[in-house]
Amino acid sequence: METLKAFSGQISISRLCLLAQVSRAGYYRWLNRKKSPKQRLDKQLMALIKAIYNERKGKWGYRRIKMELNNRLGKHYNVKRIRRLMSLLGLRAVIRRPRHTCTIVKGT
What we know:
Blueprint: H1 2-7, H2 13-20, H3 24-31, H4 37-55, H5 62-73, H6 79-89
């Protein structure tokens, strides 16, 4: 359906629906549907996740962001949900390289 929406300015809707084997009524019903409460909550969570990610300069991954989000909102969101939303946003943690210290031993 998303691809139909993308091509709607170039080709007529009836032709697109015929190619995709979707009824015109079904396309317009999909186009004008209301978002579910879960989808609306996911959109709010995505905004908060993006804010936390930017605050931490992209160094935190989904586990830490989940803990921070749960602490801020006082609720419990699953790790899988946060990871799914972060992947939809294209956010990934910056993997920091470990710092190796070198000690010089005198007398050897």
